[in-house]
Amino acid sequence: MLLHDSRIGLRRWVLLFLVISPTFFSSAISGDESRVAAKKIFMREKVRKMFYHAYNNYMTYAFPHDELKPLTKTFTDSLSELGNLNLEHLPQNYNGSALTLIESLSSLVILGNYSEFGRAVTWLSENLTFDVDARIHLFECNIRVLGGLVSAHILATDPTNGLDQGIYKNQLLNLAEDLGRRFLRAFDTPTGLPYAWVNLKHGLMENETTETSTSGCGSLILEMGSLSRLTGDPRFEAAALRALRKLWSMRSPLNLLGTTLDVVTGEWLEHSSGIGAGVDSFYEYLIKAHILFGKDEFWDMFQSAYLAVQKYFRHGPWYHEADMRTGKATYWQLTSLQAFWPGLQVLVGDIAAANSSHREFFHVWERFGVLPERYLLDREMLHPTEKYYPLRPELAESTLYLYQATKDPWYIEVGESIVNSLSLYTKVEGGFASIKDVTTMQLEDHQHSFFLAETCKYLYLLFDDSFLVNKNFIFTTEGHPLPVRSDWHEKLPEIYTPTNWTYIKSEKQGKRASAMSLQICPADILMPRRGNAVHGIESACHVPDSCADHRCMTDDECGIDSTTCRQRSCSIAGYCGLWLFII
Ligand code: DMJ
């Protein structure tokens, strides 16, 4: 009897649950959505305050010098210190280049502060000069200053950004052009590979080092290409392209590159490389140059390079270094800079791989409170001299890309955790300080300009992407936005106005959709039918198998499936496919 009664009771409960469950679930979902929406607004305001705490302290204690020293409330002129400060070549009155202000320009626009943006533009127009006897690092000056000016010029000329058009007469572009001309002297080498260092006033200096890095000469094309398109002077793009082509021609038969090279002899000095320091933005610029300029040449280079990375550097979600000649692993190290890679993978459409690597980086962040500069994977310990965290943006950057591609609220939680750590460990009265040692959280007196150009910007966009809606930007490696314009793009027809590049247009769209295919591939949809066949769309996530006949010995020889974007694996019979393994 008891049993009978309880069965009836259970059935009633099941029936009742079935009746109310749709309402229950829909209200639970909308409850979740509104909680996420509220959190995003709350966090956006927290990031806004973070940005202004860093910016206002810079303006009070360091401007017009380059960067703020937040502990002593003093400054550093790091543009010429990026590397070795050559004091004897600095004039007495050299007082910096307002680097942090230049780096903040696009962030001010994204935060909607057009009046401060306007004041900054006016100040820079009236005061900034590059006719100074300063030895600068080409790569750093390109990504920070040239990129900052070019991007801000584009934002300033966009009437929707609310800048009083009366005050803007291309001053930032004129400054960028002047700087670009000074850069050109660095490219005067037998190989076309640029020197890492150039003097802004005098050009190449006597006995200048001929050593540079792969990223140093392979990540100039976005800024210098844009400068050429804006000014009509083709020399900037031509120089950057020539260097990139030369660099690519120096790859090994495995499609791997080293980390350092000689710009005069064109020989490699360091054959080991990975996806971190000295190489990172080289990969980034291949894919982003393809997105920005639509040249197949960039895509072809990128695809081969990406495949080689996945094949020789990847170990599960981790990436080690390998010798470009043999493909054999050299250093098993996780570095903070590598954390940009999942963001790049989102652009390619390789979202599952991006997600798994990102999770590992976040675990490391959670373990230490921030990301240490270098962790020795094989010895499971921090690198003895690289325990620092200089407020780097890479994890926040990848978090933004993954959230845009998946809309998974977990990434909002990650962003919240990053913001909370930054506030807890690095915020001081005079700004935000770098961490010298993540085991003690001892601080260092430096607020790098990329904290304003990138870290704050990516976090802000994570919580409020209104700047990106119905727009189509790529971000340079320093976080400066450049719009994808049909007149710069070899592929986009003018009638096609793509929506935001990282955006899954509809929340219902599958998570595997490639952010890049949404941007590049839809252009093909508008192409007229060829004969009776509708022209197909090549998936951007597709990485072909190593062998054309799909034979393989290991999983690493298999690529990424073009329709599902899933990693293919090697079957027992030795064929690549989407095999299901039952463990
Ligand atoms: C930035 O200056 C750029 O992102 C660069 O490519 C490498 N990383 C730093 C910030 O960590």
Which tags fit this structure?
single chain, 583 residues, 3-stranded antiparallel beta sheet
Protein described:
With 583 residues, the protein is mainly alpha-helical. Helices cover 45% and strands 10% of the residues. It is built from 18 helices and 22 strands. The strands form ten sheets. It has a three-stranded antiparallel beta sheet with strand order 5-6-7. Strands 12-13-14 form a three-stranded antiparallel beta sheet, with no helix packed on it. A two-stranded antiparallel sheet has the order 1-2. α6 (171-184) packs across α8. The protein is globular. 46% of the residues are buried. The site of 1-deoxymannojirimycin has 9 residues, from α10.
Query: How many angstroms does the end-to-end distance come to?
Result: 45 Å
Strand count, sense and barrel status of the largest sheet are: 3 strands, antiparallel
Helix/sheet category: mainly alpha
Outline: globular
Ligands: 1-deoxymannojirimycin
- List the strand order in the largest sheet: 5-6-7
Topology of this structure?
Blueprint: H1 2-61, E1 67-69, E2 74-76, H2 78-81, H3 99-110, H4 114-127, E3 135-137, H5 138-156, H6 171-184, E4 197-199, E5 211-213, H7 214-218, H8 221-231, H9 235-249, E6 260-262, E7 268-270, E8 272-273, H10 280-293, H11 296-312, E9 314-315, E10 318-319, E11 322-323, E12 333-335, H12 341-348, H13 351-368, E13 374-376, E14 381-382, H14 394-406, H15 410-426, E15 427-428, E16 431-432, E17 434-437, E18 442-444, H16 450-463, E19 473-475, E20 481-483, H17 515-520, H18 522-525, E21 569-570, E22 576-577
Antiparallel strand pairs: 1-2, 3-4, 5-6, 6-7, 8-11, 9-10, 12-13, 13-14, 15-16, 17-18, 19-20, 21-22
Bound molecules: 1-deoxymannojirimycin.
1-deoxymannojirimycin binds at residues 280-281, 337, 392-394, 450, 477-478.
